[in-house]
Amino acid sequence: MLAQILQQLPQQLLNGLVLGSTYALFALGFTLMFGVLGVINLTYGFYFSTGAFLALYATKGLGLPIGLALPGAAVLTGLIAVLFDAALLTPLRRKKAPELASLMVTLGATLLLYTLMTALFGTEIRRLPPAVISHAAITLGDVRMNMSQILIMVTTVLIVLALLSLIRFTRLGLAMRALAENGEAAQLMGVNTDAVVWLVSFISGALGSAAGVLIGLNFNAIQPYMGETMMLKGFAVIIIGGLGDIRGALVAGILIGVLEVLTAGFISSNLKDAVGFVLLVATLWFRPVGLFGRAPVKRA
Amino acid sequence: MNKPTLAVSVLALAAAAAIWAVPAKADDVTIGAIEILTGPNARYGVAIKNGFDLALGEVNKAGVLGGKKLVIQYEDSAGNKDQAVNGARKLIGLAKVPLLLGPTISNEMFAVGPVANQQKVPIVGTSTTAAGITAIGSYVFRTSLPESDVIPVTLKAAQAKFGIKKVAVMYANDDAFSKSGYDVFKATLDKLGIQILTTETFGSKDSDFSAQLTKIKSLNPDAIVVSALVEPASGILLGARAIGIDPKVRFIGGNGFNSPKLGDIAGEAADGTLVGSPWFIAKDDAANTKFVTDYRAKYKEDPDQFAAQAYDTLHIVADAINKAGAADSEKIKTALQATKSTGVMGPFSFTADRDPADTSGVVVIEMKGGKFQILK
After folding, report:
1. Is pTM, for the whole model, over 0.80?
2. Residues of A in contact with B235 (CB under 8 A)
């Protein structure tokens, strides 16, 4: 029994890391939107699905390589995200509407968008053409991984580093932090808040889209509601990690992924989905601000 | 209600009755059929109607009851069980049909079956596979094999052909169809003495199965038995090959796997997968070859399982009417119960409980190069 557990353990840990990276990758844009803009934007899941479908069209319909399809999908989705923010949330921000209003507006928009997407593409699942990425396994001892898994882990870490340095070391990052702290004060100090808001929307939308493409590459299950399913995990990740915290999203995502896989592998697969929620409840009990949260100061 | 209105409605009713009376001539034998002919599930109902109509043409070359023409009066249920019940009342009450075919889905049958049973009109479902259909009453028949009859055939074939002794089982624990398929798998595996190494569950919307598959890989099963809809099924197949489960370890699936989409999505990863099916287009006996050729000629498309089941059922019903010697519900019911025939699905007879008795027509099919073919 013990030998069997030890034999499985390295592979299960890798499975957990990959799954956790997908959660973190998904949650990064979501938490950025929340941290800087102060809204829970439910259309985020839609950007995830959109990215996957755009990449599907680019690779299958236009025959582009994935190296072009991924950034293309990310940029296009980022622009869509800016458009939605300008149409749905900017008017509310101008009127200083209560936070619940933005939640309701994005909820309505999400339902509409998913329905439109389903009407266009149907609910059947699709797969990116197998040829876009090598599916050959790389073996290290007992552990197997493939290109898309490595790509997911590496991209997640790179994006986290890029976001952290953007926020810490650039003028834009300073503007973002100022906006997160106090929008009006930032505006009075000469920050072009509209531009910062749209840039943050763009980055978030692009991140959501890139996550959709990479996760679509690994799991081969592209369908309109794929973003909806991820949103549940996304919420757990950003609450456990601390609302709006980039490092928190990374740590919490990987924590949930690894624990889920270990639970399914060594205890019972019936309990797999309970893990995220047990962690969520525990976090709210013992550390309501999340692992990296520092209430009540808003951080980016 | 004042008098003129009453008079108008009586007139309207009379006119309606007259319209119903028109298509059937006095010496025709008219039976009723309730199928989904419009709406999102019309694909199934239309395939069934095509199957009926193809068989009807063959039957009417000689006619029934000594040369009378057999006529099917269709009612569209649109997948709505109230509309299905209305259709049944119309067919039984106005058209006075001695027998009903359909309805298309089990939910509709649970609403229509009791009506037909109460009116003592035999009703024959051709596509209703849920448990408990024929328990509605002694006038309710079905010609479609339930999954509990198909799965044992698949597992026996796998055991006999590939000497499978120990398996891992997976099923979606949030989906009624997958769970009921799992129950049948479990009972059959126990009966055949095949060892279950582990039972793993997942959510039907999951896309990551690596934890369960890694565990299964470490247990070295001879085969992996899965009860799931086609979406997670394809994900499991792809995941299993990614995690490095030997391609020689076969997957054995329930009816959810019986879809060309499995090959479209999973591609080579699906190779070797075994599924049981009540009918398969490439069955090469004479009856099936003729059916497939005629169907293609008439409808310019390939028949599916629903069309095949309907085609056989209409022949069974026409024979029963002939044996009954009259278009009389009671006599037809007795004749149906005694059915012994062979159709495109294989040999057919009813059990005492009016379910199909014979599973020898079930074919086990195997995925090769992204397409199903008969396991040789």
Report:
1. no
2. 219-221
